[in-house]
């Protein structure tokens, strides 16, 4: 090994000059600063101010520093509290449903017992290419008795399901997310399953392990890292809930304009012209996302070996 | 004696029938909306609401629907598709170049603050998109970019996940090759462009695909930024038509046909490039 990276080659690494790495790193970093970090910084600052119309309504409105009042206002508003509650409920429905479905599909496909595994893999992955808006428009038609063959079929056998009623609407939305992303998550998990060396299975079979034991004692523990990853991305995705309820809202009275925190932020920014409250709400969602990711990773990492 | 025990080609067993049936049920679930929309695209508005959703009507009119889809409203749909192709194609192309260079720079050089920068970029993957889109509107408003195509294009050129993938895939470029090129007198930029980048093409295709689909499927950013129909991508255009169904029921058929067409195009693209997806997700699944 004549030229490894740590060999001090003269002329390559001079401490005084700017590292040539910045030529590669700088273009992305500048764009990242402008379109990721700057908006976040802007939201953080904006959320600490409020717009006050001056005195008698003459003259330009003033920006006043109000510190955390936008946050306390948002958090004490019953409508925003309700939207946060709905979001947590949605998380509790969606995350286990998604992770379980993706894991079961991946395990079934990788048993080597199924016919046409490639066909199934392609079919399950297909919805990932469908924009969330279009998927929601489609499922919207399937949630209305006039156009839904499913509801018509259920009615024929005496089941009157109303997917968009206020009790069912969260499940109706969870179904759309499941349909969109279960196949994508399944592919991540099948990739992890395929990276397990087959010798391990053979050794286990010699020891007399059946298919169930293989799953519980070998496959699931070995793809734990990928399951953690899928769970994490699903949690972050569910916290952003916006498009599906927004597009479904004309079809049902069960979805208000502040159904989720993101919808409330959007309404504040563009229909109520209150960007500071909108910023505070957006920051609250981000903090929840970070807190939940952190807590989740702490929990999985404290049990046994580090997953991430 | 235990032989290799993956058993494709073995006789029918109960576990084989059971596994395949379960997968078939799931396949029906995933195919149902797609089958519905393709069938619905052949129907008139009356038949859409009056006939069985999973069966053709007596008077299919797919060609008529397609013709109206492409001509309605001064060919608005064609403009929207072109816009989507522009946003996704150009956005993903630049994003691929930027993140490949950045990931390569982080992988192959040591410099001050390198790991901190990478951690910051990774944190960017975790930030909800809505948290960025709303303030970005107000920021771009101050520089008069809101409403222009650039307001959607520029933010689409940043892919933190792409940097992550590029850093991992830079391992396919051996350090020895880079050192050899240096000894031959090549500059750092030349080495990247002529030696490293060609070796990273599979990774670059993966990054491009991920970003392409992300931009194509994005709804919030164009919704926030754009107001003129001429600049809309397909997603925004179809929801605009969807909001006009009260005025004229024919818009139901236009929305359904438009959804079917844009779905067929993108799903076709994804299927055609399947092996690149898998490459990307395998690395995404292993430890960084």
What do these coordinates show?
The complex is a heterodimer of chains A (308) and B (288). Chain A contains 13 helices and two strands, in the order αββαααααααααααα. In chain A, helix 4 packs across helix 7 and helix 10 runs antiparallel to helix 13. Helix content of chain A is 65%, strand content 3%. Chain A is globular and about 85 Å long. Chain A starts with 20 loop residues before the first helix and ends in a 6-residue tail after the last helix. In chain A, strands 1-2 form a two-stranded antiparallel ribbon. The N terminus of chain A is likely disordered. Chain A has 308 residues and is mainly alpha-helical. Chain A has one domain: MetI-like (MetI-like fold, Orthogonal Bundle). With 288 residues, chain B is mainly alpha-helical. Chain B has one domain: MetI-like fold, CATH 1.10.3720. Chain B is 74% helix and 0% strand. Chain B has 14 helices and no strands. Chain B is globular. Chain B starts with 13 loop residues before the first helix and ends with a helix. Classes of the chains: A mainly alpha (308), B mainly alpha (288). At the A-B interface, helix 1, helix 3, helix 4, helix 5 and helix 6 of A face helix 1, helix 3, helix 4, helix 5 and helix 8 of B.
Summarize the structure.
The complex is a heterodimer of chains A (308) and B (288). By secondary structure, chain A is an all-alpha fold.
Provide the residue-averaged pLDDT of chain A.
Answer: 87
Helix content of chain B: over 70%
Give the SSE order of chain B as H and E letters.
HHHHHHHHHHHHHH
Mind describing the biggest β-sheet of chain B? Answer: none
The named CATH superfamily of chain B: MetI-like
Overall form of chain A: globular
Tell me the number of structural domains of chain A: 1
Helical proportion of chain A, percent range: 55-70%
Decide which structural class fits the backbone of chain B: mainly alpha
Radius of gyration of chain B: 24 Å
